[in-house]
What we know:
The complex is a heterodimer of chains A (about 625) and B (about 45). Chain A has helices spanning about 1-20, 25-50, 55-90, 95-135, 140-160, 175-220, 225-245, 245-250, 270-275, 310-325, 345-355, 395-405, 410-415, 445, 455-465, 540-545, 555-560, 590-615, 625-630; strands at about 290-295, 295-300, 305, 335-340, 360-375, 380-395, 475-480, 490, 505-510, 525-535, 565-575. Chain A is α/β, with parallel strands linked by helices and about 625 residues long. Chain A has three domains: about 15-250; about 270-415, no CATH class; about 445-630, no CATH class. Chain A has a six-stranded mixed beta sheet. In chain A, strands 8-7-10-11-9 form a five-stranded mixed beta sheet. Chain A starts with a helix and ends with a helix. Helix content of chain B is about 85%, strand content about 0%.
Amino acid sequence: MVAVAEQGSAISQFLYLLRWFLDGQALGWCLLATLTAVGTSVFRLLFRVVRRESGLRAVVWTWCTVVLSLALAGVRIALARQELLAVLLRHAPDDSSQRARLVAVSLTRVVLTQRFTCSVLAVAMLAMLVAVIHARPRLPQRWLIGLAASLLLLTVVAVHLSNQGFPWSCFGADNSSACSFEEASRSVLQMQRAARCLVCAGALGWAIGLLLVFRAARRQIVSDGRASLASTVILVAGIGAFWATRTEHADALQLVPPDRPNAARFWIDERLQEQLPMARSGCSAETAPIIELGANGVSVDGSALRDPEDVEAALARKRELWQQLNPASRFSGLVLLAAPRGTKAWDLLPWLLAAQQAGYAKFGALLQVPTATLHTHSLGALEIKRVCAEVWTIDAGLRRAFAHFETWGELVAADSVWPPDPYARHSEHSRCGSLSAPTSPPLASLFGKAHLLRKRDDLDALINQAKNGVAERLALRVGGTGRVSCECPPFMIPLSDPDESSPSLLAIPQNGAANFGLDRTVLEFIVVGYFSGAWIDTYEYLHTQGDDDPVTDDETRSTYRELGAEFCLEASCYWATPFEFGNYEHAGAEERRLSEENVRYWRTRQAEDIAQMARLGIPKCRPESLAKAR
Amino acid sequence: MRRALLRNIYTVTAAVVGLVLLCVAAIDWLGYTVFVASLTWWR
């Protein structure tokens, strides 16, 4: 049963190959008819040899059909190669799948023509050798027939063997061009070896022929004049054929090299390809949708579009389709941009945003690899143009780069070194939670010792001391910035040296101490506690209060990033400096009115702040505590 | 006789050289198909 099934499978495979061999071509049918005629002749020749009848006519008929089939196969291969060259040398095709089909059909025709012809001719030449050895009566000029049959047999076997595995074995391979190049090189090498074997076989045949000649001379046998004529014709034909195929021979020895793993070819506009930024080290071959910004507008994978919204929709459709086709795989999320290097980077930002909106996480620049030229004997110089891609993760840094760099070329040349974030946070982590509070002196005793720091160095010394793990409990005067016209944090540490600027302070309440928060008050405070040794920003302060996603506005976005000395707050009290009317004896009525309004406004604010402190449970400082702090 | 021997030598040599050149030319010509196929990874 298995044998029958295998037989059936082999027959169906043969019929399948035969259908591709014929390919609906008249020339294919003619070649098939000629090969059938060769088979018939061979059968007739063997029949005559077995019956011990003269096989001369069958030999002549076999050679005629063999030569005819060689000629037809040659014409068919030449035509198929011309078609293949026409397709390959044509510029960017309208439809790459149509082009791939044409290439596959032409190559299949060449390979199957070789395979069918070689198989039939190998059998024919074997039969011819049998006839040369066993035919009775003996064939005339049988040494010549035998030599020709032997060499042709060697040739067809060599061609058949060199075609094994090429060009189909690499379809579907990871790096198909490198694999195909390897197979093709192996095929060429085998053909070269076969040619050398033929020369050796010819030399052997020549030596045997000379022996026969000398033996014939001893018997005084003179060769037929027609044999000399035939030899001359063969020699002239051989020299002509050899001379005529030197171009093909030279080209077969220098195959087109395979693409390097980090370069790829894409069907993008030729002029645009020449204007792409130049490739850099680290550039890689990536397969992804391409946003092409050519002279005719924007397109995605060759489909013309109008604006970023269209691009976003097209990319989203591609992503969804890919995900449907590969439900178990993770989407790479890469999109490539092919744009001239002189394009303003800012003008390209909409395409980046469109890709990001469409769910793509990576953005790549399509770059041109320096053009390589292959000098061929039959087709002249062939330019090998390739591209590669530099890929970036879409993030704030990349978006800043589009705003920072003048042109697309400059952005690519920046080597992924984007401009620094002007709003970057530099905060340290809060240390109040990890520090153990000093045990002395007692909190209450410190309010009377509250003082002003003199210089910034004093503050730095306290902070360094805390950084080294020796926090010092102290009472310090702190001012609200409610009266200062600035975009600054809400609290500052006033310094007695008027030439020094006041650093900011962020107080982290400890052990249930009342938190005076982040409101910019017009009050002043005495805070008791210790510096943690860290400089933190308001985001970090809010993080310690459990708020990791604070609502910000234009002002706080900037002030929240400013650093303040972290102070671990254990107790506090406030006082309010009264607002006084100025001396307006010589001022006009309008000026006096404005001044009074101003004072009233600040007094109202102060009253509100005092009410807030009462709600928070922060006491007013005793007058004796303020003596030193002022 | 000597002339006949030379003619026989010529006949054998010409036939062998001609046939070898024809076969080598055929192999080289068919090898060009591999070069044409290699153009598929150029374009």
